[in-house]
Amino acid sequence: MKINAGECRFSKRGLGVVIALAMAGATMAALVLYGIKGVAIYSKPVDEFLSQQGRVMGRAVRVEGNLVHGSLQQRVQPCEYRFLIEKNGTELAVHYPQCVIPDTLRDVPQIQVGVTVEGKLQQEGFFLASSVLAKCPSKYEMKEREQRGDRAPHSL
Asked: Where are the transmembrane segments (predicted)?
């Protein structure tokens, strides 16, 4: 059996292309995984978050809880909102240095407002939020509330 030299070159060239593509793919996968690791944001309820505060100090995280009634305060100079969120009896002070908050973040008696804040826990013990999300009640919750005579927080 005779082997043609041109066929061997093609095979070697093909093998080289396959190796180069595999290396490029591995490099891209490594970059994606490294990039995701750096920007991954953990989401925890207030009580779990505060039990791990040594591990999360200064890291970007999301914290979930309910607005503590009577705690929502607006400061004019500098423009900032301050409030407390809680879960299972554990409270977290939140500072949000923005002039505008979501419409659904209202302190209305007898309406529980779920809040998710994203930001970093500060050495002083408060959470500096870069974004605030107030959860809207589902349509099923709203039907139950309407039957009790309650109104949605954003319709007040």
From this structure: 15-36
Q: Rounded to a whole number, what is the largest CA-CA distance in the chain?
A: 92
Rounded CA-CA distance 70/107 in Å is 7
- Partnered with residue 120 across adjacent β-strands are 128
Same domain, 19 and 72: no
Q: Which tokens hold the place of 18?
A: 């396959």
Residues spanned by the domain of 114 = 46-148
Q: What is the pLDDT of residue 14?
A: 75
In this structure, the answer to whether residues 112 and 36 fall within a common structural domain is no
On the 0-12 / 13-18 / 19+ scale of CB atoms within 10 A, 105 is: buried
Q: What is the pLDDT of residues 94-152, one digit of tens each?
A: 999 998 888 888 888 778 899 999 999 998 989 999 999 998 766 556 666 677 766 65
Q: Is 156 domain-assigned? A: no
